[in-house]
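Dig into this one:

. . .
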Amino acid sequence: MSKKQSAKTDILGIVTFGLFLIIVAVIFMSTPDLLDRILDFFRDFTLQQLAPYIYLPAPKSDHPTLYRAVFQFCLAFATIHIPILGARFLLKESVNRKAETISSILFWFGAAWIINLLLTIDIAWYSFLGYLIALIGVSIVTWSVIILIALTLRKPAS
């Protein structure tokens, strides 16, 4: 694909955003008092000592209704990226857009898994944050490796 073609409007990105809004709306419609649950979550934060002289905010209690809603969102959003990726291949879109979509699939399924840990085995808040930070790193590395492989395969043999 030429640079001019890859600079065109990302129609599938716009479709993804529309699906994002639909998923958010469905989650809000299907979860009673979700806005109140979100506000309760942020009101519940307090400073907790992580190490000597190091205090970080963390919720005092669990918020299973909110965690379940976020889990459902992550799972749904990850799932819609799969046909989007297929469409990107069918439309012969740029490697960068395909890599972004693959990275998004990995991130959102990973986020669903991590949030499920909060729901099922009740991991500590800071462990949750550590997993999330690691997942962001894995997503970035995945995107970078795909781009690197694509660039390597494009180079003519010397």
